[in-house]
Design brief:
The protein has about 400 residues and is α+β, with helices and mostly antiparallel strands. The chain is built from 13 helices and 18 strands. The strands form 5 sheets. Strands 7, 8, 9, 10, 11 and 12 form a 6-stranded antiparallel sheet that branches. Strands 1-6-2-3 form a 4-stranded antiparallel sheet, covered by helices on one side. Strands 14-16-17-18 form a 4-stranded parallel sheet, sandwiched between helices. Bound molecules: guanosine-5'-diphosphate (GDP) and manganese (II) ion.
Amino acid sequence: MDIHEYQAKEILSNFGVAVPDGSLAYSPEQAAYRARELGGERWVVKAQVHAGGRGKAGGVKLCNSDIEIQDVSENLFGKKLVTHQTGPEGQGIYRVYVEACVPIERELYLGFVLDRTSQRVMIVASANGGMEIEEISANSPDSLVRATVEPAVGLRAFQCRQIAFKLGFEPGMVQQVVRTLQGCYRAFTELDATMVEVNPLVVTTDNRLIALDAKMTFDDNALFRHPQISELRDKSQEDPRESRAADRGLNYVGLTGNIGCIVNGAGLAMATMDTIKLAGGEPANFLDIGGGATPERVAKAFRLVLSDDNVQAILVNIFAGINRCDWVAEGVVQALKEVETDIPVVVRLAGTNVEAGQKILSQSGLPIIRAGTLNEAAERAVTAWRNDQSQATILRSTS
Ligand code: GDP
Ligand code: MN
């Protein structure tokens, strides 16, 4: 789960990381009021969306008066901000963060990620901040400083000092670097984050080290341990299909194709997507309905997949070990009777109670296309989708 910049800054600040003075606003008037409350002469208005690259996309604006802040905010609220990280549809701006402007001397990059190779938290830093990590690794890979943390002892001060010197900090600044690195590391581990990124981390003209931007991502599977983090979820920033799935406890990832997939087991779901592609189609989603799926759960999965307007055919692929084919079949029938769709549905069942499942499908009177193997199922789904498309074209051209 992602959170907003202002939320990440509040968290990091609680762990001792210095951040600019700032305040959140839900309207342009409130933004101007917040600036007056903060005081000073220059402010930065920052669109709060779950994506980076806002500066280049016009989502971060320096302002010299409260009137300017109101004008700038009026142009942000309700708009969709399109950055290189959002995709073409962009992300809605419903909150802005107003900060006292910080005088910057130099910009650095600081990131904490989970390194799967060493199975440790890895720190990645660069003295060339202000650009994305991808650009840094492409343009100045030699500037990257990497260090992994031994989990049994945590991030030690000597390690932070080493990083500080590699980044070219003067001895007088090193203590601030230690505090910042250790604060981020503790926030990362204690809150089960999978990513903490401070870009840029800045040195001000008066030699303070400040996190000017902050991003945090959390491990969804550990959110139950952190109710105060779960509460930070902002559904306005999520793919609506994925929000609906998460609310229903289904493991769903939205994709851009048009063959909807309903599968039990993550591995089988991946294999199903591959097979659809091999057969010449494009999957509309990844969906693992899990083991022991009841008819109600299968019906829920169906409604979810069908709520995606791009879906033009559905492939149900069940290998029932813990599951029962008759339950899945009942779910399919139940869902199809309810939603009354004319989208072709291909069902492949194998495993426990397969005969009973097939019987339920054939006795339902519904036009369900059945398949014996995964290859057959994928081919039939792609053929059904193509036929459906050409029929639609014929209808359109004759009407
Ligand atoms: P991002 O583009 O979404 O990563 O947003 P950032 O929060 O990183 O802001 C983009 C850029 O705006 C930063 O790299 C800074 O150059 C600039 N910026 C943001 N806040 C301030 C500030 O307080 N003072 C100054 N001088 N520049 C700022
Ligand atoms: Mn940034």
